Amino acid sequence: MTELLPVAVLGARGRMGAEAVRSIGAAADLDLVAALGRSDPLDTLVSAGAAVVVDLTVPDATADNVRFAVEHGMHAVVGTTGWTVERLADLRSLLGSTPSTGVLIAPNFALGSVLATAFAATAARYFESVEIIELHHPDKVDAPSGTAARTAQLIAAERSAAGVPDAPDATRDQLDGARGARVDGVPVHSVRLRGLTAHQEVLLGGPGEQLTIRHDSFDRASFMPGVLLGIRSVSHHPGLTVGLDGYLDLQAGPRP
Fold first, then answer.
1. Which residue in the list 72, 137, 140, 237 is annotated as catalytic?
2. 215 classed as catalytic
3. CATH fourth-level superfamily of 111-218
4. What pTM did the predictor assign?
5. For residue 170, pLDDT beyond 90
6. What is the rounded end-to-end Cα distance, in angstroms, of the chain?
């Protein structure tokens, strides 16, 4: 009989966490050993014997949650935003003392979104202009989304590696925010609207043509295949991986 992988979910009472609990519970190779809310003690992870911790909490809590998991020899799969450059550096330093432990921080678990980001980063090498529009429900606490920020970072890296100059923009007079936020030089526009779930468009323009790469998540069930992929793969990827594309055979980053 195959041994089941013991998994715990943090943020189990949230919408994303509840979906993860259902999906893990239905997976034949996984054993949901703990489903914790925000106020539940993290020591439960140890007593439950969790090998992988899925963090779907809030930005203020995620860094401490992951630190606890790593310090207790547990792998972590993280879908919570709020990971600054400083927090990532601290986590890399911590993981240096536990070289067999893996942590995945994924701005988006939808496989279609990961692919769309990879396609957009590749295409951005060949177009003069590129901008991102991300659209989410009004309960989302961060803007731009983590997915949009990562997409912009990968696009900027690809364009820099290819020697593509900055996109033309003759704007001189504008209201604050009219041209969006700039992430590594790429304009990102955020929409918050009731009825939306998670959507992103990358607009790429050149002389006489436009390419639009769009991904839509209509239900949080769309994120679950990526969550399960992360759970099953994280132990095979020691250290820190940012982005689910790191577990896929994609070439979304800068090329030699």
1. 140
2. no
3. Dihydrodipicolinate Reductase; domain 2 (3.30.360.10)
4. 0.84
5. yes
6. 45
